[in-house]
Design a protein that fits this description.
This protein has one domain (about 5-285). The protein has twelve helices and no strands. The protein has helices spanning about 5-15, 15-20, 30-45, 60-80, 90-95, 100-110, 115-135, 145-170, 175-195, 205-230, 235-260, 265-285.
């Protein structure tokens, strides 16, 4: 498969996550737990030898691995919760603003120098986020949307923390062993949270388990694996452009499947977020 075709397939696979989630009625923490645990087992099965790389990590790197898994649990738990309370369009646009948040955190915590194009990109995306929040002071049929927007933003923060915490560890581990391990760690965190929250872990109809499996295979094992595959052949900023397509495709699918029409504020805010992300990616290129 050519790298550009792989990128397109990867974008489509990742964009299916929010759609698949709407076909399950299980608690968000339970859905996220199954998605990550099953994906971890699948990837671990194809990279069993690579898991020995864990032994080469020092104490600090193992700590960062645990931190990365924790932030990934925050990302999935919060994002799936948001999908119960706001539109797919608003949720995916907000959660996919994570690259912009990552840039801000890198400036503040890692001392990376800010360039004007990055500053403008952050400002534009933040304006988009505020536009969506301001337009959601009412509610949609799926529930109180302002709460859903906030949980999507918390999911974006979690994804940003996952990317930053795992930056060093990924240099010492192959992509598949790293993904398998961090998915497993995150799944354990989510399982603990689900139990504390009183969510039933088992006893669901067969259809629910099928959705769990599809979430693990399509957006996780296929989508993210293809993203990582394309990094071998395409420049990083080109691959990152793929993230711009996810909320757009998810919004289109939500309309076609659920007849879910985004509000004008969501469309306007989403456009601003995408514009800011584009500038942020161009900043990374420079």
């Amino acid at each position: 498969m050519g790298a550009r075709l792989a990128l397109v397939v990867g974008i489509l696979a990742v964009s299916s996550a929010s759609i698949l989630f709407r076909f399950t009625s299980a608690p968000p923490l339970v859905v996220a737990t199954y998605r990550l645990v099953v994906a971890s087992l699948i990837l671990g099965g194809v990279s069993a030898g690579g898991l020995r790389q864990l032994l080469d990590l020092n104490l600090k790197e193992r700590g960062l691995l645990l931190l990365s898994g924790f932030f990934l649990a925050v990302h999935f738990g919060s994002w799936f919760e948001s999908l119960r309370h706001t539109t797919i369009a608003a949720s995916t646009f907000i959660v996919d603003s994570a690259p912009v948040i990552t840039l801000v955190v890198s400036w503040l915590l890692l001392g990376e120098r800010a360039r004007m194009i990055g500053v403008v990109g952050v400002g534009v995306s933040m304006a988009g986020l505020l536009t969506i929040f301001a337009g959601h002071r009412g509610s949609f049929a799926v529930g109180p949307s302002i709460y859903g927007d906030f949980m999507a933003f918390l999911g974006a923060l979690g994804l940003s923390g996952y990317l930053i915490a795992g930056r060093i560890v990924r240099r010492k581990m192959g992509t598949t062993p790293y993904a398998s391990t961090v998915y497993g760690v995150s799944g354990i965190f989510l399982l603990f949270l689900a139990i504390v929250n009183g969510d039933p872990i088992t006893g669901y109809p067969a259809g629910e388990y099928l959705v769990f499996l599809l979430l693990a295979i399509i957006p996780s094992c296929i989508g993210h694996t293809l993203y990582n595959y394309t990094l071998r052949y395409l420049k990083a900023y080109v691959v990152n452009m793929g993230f711009l397509g996810e909320p757009v495709i998810a919004t289109i699918l939500a309309y076609l499947i659920f007849r879910e029409v985004p509000s004008p504020q969501t469309v306007m805010g989403g456009a601003l977020i995408l514009a800011g992300m584009y500038l942020t990616i161009m900043y990374e290129k420079s």
